[in-house]
Amino acid sequence: MAMNTVVKTLSKVLLLTLPLLFLSVVVRAESTKPTEHPGQVVSLIGEWHAIKIENLRWNDTGWSEDSVELRIKIIEQHGAVFRGTVSYDAPDASPGHDGEKLGTKRTVDILGVFDWDGQHFTIVSKAKDAFTLQGTMLNPHSFEIIGYEAGLHSWVTRDLYIRK
């Protein structure tokens, strides 16, 4: 008799927990799907200027907003992907390096893409001395950048850009 009661109790528990187990598997599967609707992205079309620059370069010098003008110009954007240029003008600073020679002015073609969240983006250069910039939108009119170039003429930077 006692065995029959145990079997009935286990059957009831199993019948009650199976639907919950199934539901938890379905919910878990849904939560691991990639986002079907990516976050809204801001239009970056236009010109952006760095108003704060913290930079360290291969020759132990750095650039600041007082010694160099940094600009990002986005000329084309299709949803999350965009293209444009990055420029610097450093007449009063130690020169930059383009992979071949030193110089105080330069413009480089870039490609970029927003992350799925619509707030973070990556920019890569189309240059011999390839660099990468990681950006975060602060609002529709400003973003921050963390950037780097590895190698012989390496540098790291952290900049704040506003729309002009």
Automatic annotation (TrEMBL):
Signal peptide: 1-29
Keywords (A to Z) from UniProt: Signal
Source organism superkingdom: Bacteria
Protein name according to UniProt: Lipocalin-like domain-containing protein
